[in-house]
Amino acid sequence: MATAFPIPASLQELESSPYNLLPYPHDFDDDDEAARAESFDKLIRLLDSGNRSLSSNGLGLFDVPDGEEDMDAWNDSERIQALYTLVRKSDSLAPAARSRLVKSLCSAVHGLCSALANPGVVMSQQQGTQDGSTSVVSQSFRDALACHIYFLFTLMFLTESKEKLGKSLLGGNGTNGKTKSKGGRSKKSKDSEGDMSAANRSACAEAMHIAAITMCEQKSRLWKRSVPDETVVGLPCRIAYQMLESATGVVARKASSGDEALDMIAATVDSAPCLLNTVVAALVDLLHTYDHMAPLVAELCCKVNEKPTNILATELLREIGRLDTEGEQGGKASGIKNVAPLISELAAVRPRVVLSNLSLLLPHLDSEPYVLRSAIISSIGHILVREDRTLIENEIGDVASEGDGETKKDDGRQIANMGKTRSALFDILCERTRDITSFTRGASLKVLNDLTEKQSVPLDRIMSVTEIAIDRLNDKTVMVRRYAMQVSHAAASSQSRSLLI
């Protein structure tokens, strides 16, 4: 097999050119179960031996003499064949053997990442940047890293797929009494196997997380001119999507290593901007499919690099702005219903980003799905609360400081623009209190109530807000009338405080 290890489209492609691997090594003995288990154990011992050599020598294993680029003494064909056989047959391994495989593969990934991050005195002199300032690791090291990350990805993919299938079968069949018929010994064995599987999933997630972070931080030493290999750097993202599918709650998020999955995606976005469109498309697809994804995606937008702009959040808002809402009847379609909460979730943590891209979302106020209109209204509430605090801080800063004339002019111009923006957003809120759908009318009144209680409504708007609340007391929907009463009470209390002041 050639030294280069291009990432295959599927595991089965490894049996064709240029890999030319076999399902089993030539000396694999499978005459009976005992011989088969011993053959698998021999392959795992081979991996452990290579890991010890990597731990002792680090990058020195990959320094090849000039003219011998095709030689790879560590990640040779025998090791790759062992990895392929073990990962391909991981489901048929005994639990203890599968745990040893996971430990060995994770140890190899940890060792490669550690050698890259802490090269010590051993530095590859074969390649470098054009100015010679930063040394780039050898091709054999890149191939070894890509190979082990791919096999770790495949092992995690098979594990997550099996876990997802088990949950679906359990949900479909329920408890039909079979568990009770089994003895306590069998139940203990099943619990022990479940704990071992959870530990394996956690170890794999930790190793893949470290690989993603290392490729992000060390891309200048890993690839020429810091241009990453998309097929390699995208592997952590591909498994992270599957991990997030299972993160439906606090317990499930911990079990599926949801935090590590978010960090993997964030590291990929920061290290490989060329994959941004692919990441955005995958996240939008997850948002359409699962109703628990909106808070996770909003949290992810807080983890990426935000200088000069939060490009991930911006692209996601642009995708939402491009949504085709025609044909959605009453906002009942699950896709729009799952995507819409992202707008308000993102406005709660990054209101400035949503405000900068609000013009992309405002056309949806005239669309059919009420959930989308209500989400935009809720996001406007978050923006107004944050902008009100910012405006007060700027005004206090202007009074307390005595800057030069140009600075004061710029600050005054910014405050004036913020005032115009706030006025336009309040106009949208007031207009949507007469929306055709009661849910959106209620959402608008709820936002006005929150703004009034937080004293974020300007004094010149108190009377108009009160008039709107009194008018909505005649609404035909009980929910809207209840919110209107709350707004009336909050506005009356706000007016009382203003008179006392």
UniProtKB/TrEMBL annotation:
Residues 96-266 form the Condensin complex subunit 1 N-terminal domain. GO terms for biological process: meiotic chromosome condensation; mitotic chromosome condensation. One of its GO terms (cellular component) is condensin complex. It holds the Pfam family Cnd1_N. SUPFAM superfamilies: ARM repeat (SSF48371). Residues 168-196 are annotated as: Disordered. Residues 179-188 have a biased composition (Basic residues). One of its GO terms (molecular function) is histone binding. This is Condensin complex subunit 1 N-terminal domain-containing protein. The lineage of its organism: Eukaryota, Sar, Stramenopiles, Ochrophyta, Bacillariophyta.
